[in-house]
Amino acid sequence: MNQHIDDTAPADLVAGDRVAGRLYTDPDIFEREMAAIFETTWVWVAHESELATPGSFKSTYVGRQPVIVTRDRKNNLHTMLNRCRHRGASLCEKPQGRANGFTCPYHAWSYGLDGTLRGIPYPDGYEDVVEKRDLSLRKLRTESYGGMVFATLDADAEPLADFLGDAKLWIDRFMKQGGGYPIKVLGKHQFRFKGNWKIQLENTTDGYHFPIVHRSWMASVDAETADMMSFMTDPDAITHDLGNGHSVMQMVPEHADLDVDDGSEPVQGRFDDLAAELSKSFSDAEVRRLLRAMHGTGFNLNLFPNVAMSSAFFRVLRPVAVDETVIEHVAIGPDGPSELDPLNRERLRIHEHFQGPFGFGTPDDAEGWDRVQRGARAEPAMPILVNRGSAREKTSAEGWPTSHVTDETGMRAAYNQWKRMMRDD
Amino acid sequence: MTEATTAPAVAEPVSTTDARAARAIDLVWREAELLDRADYLGWNELFTGDGLYVVPIDPDTDDFENTLNMVYDDARMRELRVGRMTEGYAIAAVDAARTVRTVSRFVPESVSDTEVVLRSAQVLIAYKRRRHDIWAADLTHRVRLAADGAVGDRIVRKVVRLVDSEDAVPAAGFLL
User: Fold this and answer.
1) What are this entry's molecular-function GO terms (chain A) (predicted)?
2) What distance lies between CA A241 and its chain's CA centroid?
3) Fewer CB within 10 Å: N-end or C-end of chain B?
């Protein structure tokens, strides 16, 4: 039998603790995923700080579909297909900016920030042909929680708050790394790898790879930071399945809720100079609160299907093809007075140290994923194992399936959601 | 010549055959070859102690300190990076693409007896696993000329502006 031809229904290729390798390699499965997952569920499109003022916009994607996210004059957020209703040209090719609206470069049809068609040049040819009100940009439902903006192409999708469910608590906790200030986007790295998007989806909830793949990074940081990330044998470091494909991996459980501070933890010595600088403007308690959050929160919150709130940054994945994925690593920091600039500079340096196409961590991850994509072509029916720790998984007091941080509980959570969404019925 | 040439290049262009500009060009070519040979220890020795190596994302900024970059290395970070590239733990560096880079289109921006600022173009081909990637960039080198001859010339600042810095590029196991 030719293993590269398989009529098994995609949902049947996932068996709880193992998935067929063809989930990474089969172009037909990829096409179905775009329709059944990325064009159906809530997909992260922006952080509200990227659309801080009326008239600001960002161009991005929902699955493979280009979209524009805007804030209109009434402060409402919109997500619209980046496609003129006339002949299909893209309206906006800038990654972000400010605008009063969007004018198609081809025949100058113009649209408002809310997608309303405002003007058609030489309109006499359209008399008795079209009504402008029928030709607004195609809008996606847009909802946000905790500053995280999501859009969906499915008008009947459940409310975002319901989809996020128990993940909302962890979004709230994640945002506490502002140290009393809101979070803002400071910049982003982008890189692509020749591999399937689910390989990256798994990685953000993969504690097991960390000391192996990231040995080079661990060797390059101070002893306190390396010790903070030494969770392999820490029994308190655990991963929860939060439902709907979402999971949270707690690498540094004492930083799960940054408001909880018994004062016993010393601030890392590497931040002494920064502490001295901040102390000119902030109280000791404020400085301690800000510096305890320098590495972000102590967990990676993995939201199905395309965003993770990972320690001190957002990881956003965008499927391009069955074997190509674009990743963004979005740097964040507290949005406050200019006296916080030294702190945000240090956060940028920490982000650059690990993330991005020339970071000390990302290229090694990408090499690992590249190897998965290449290896998975061998016998695509053979299972990929996501069963680590399944025998020691227990239900937490909150009702969440829970196991050690190095276990594959989060991957099983994501694949269970994948299986639900990929069912034909 | 005794004074620094600080006027804009259009007013008084400096030839690439100017002896001081030529020393800077030689250094940039030696540097390119060291990087293609992955001789990172030798490469790092070309920088001054206060030297900066920057690969920015924002094509318009010179304020690298307050923006996110792909690389923003002072001497400490460069030494850590060289360690990462050579120690054998980093799987991206162990299995790195082979690179061949051509640096040309030199324009001396300013020339004095102690310092040359040199703009150039770099086209790099990276080959790995049956795939060739193109990395095109504008380079700016600020080179400190040694009083006792070219052997002591050093890089004070190198800025690599990729044409696609705001787009997604592959994750790299080599340096630009």
Assistant:
1) dioxygenase activity
2) 17
3) N
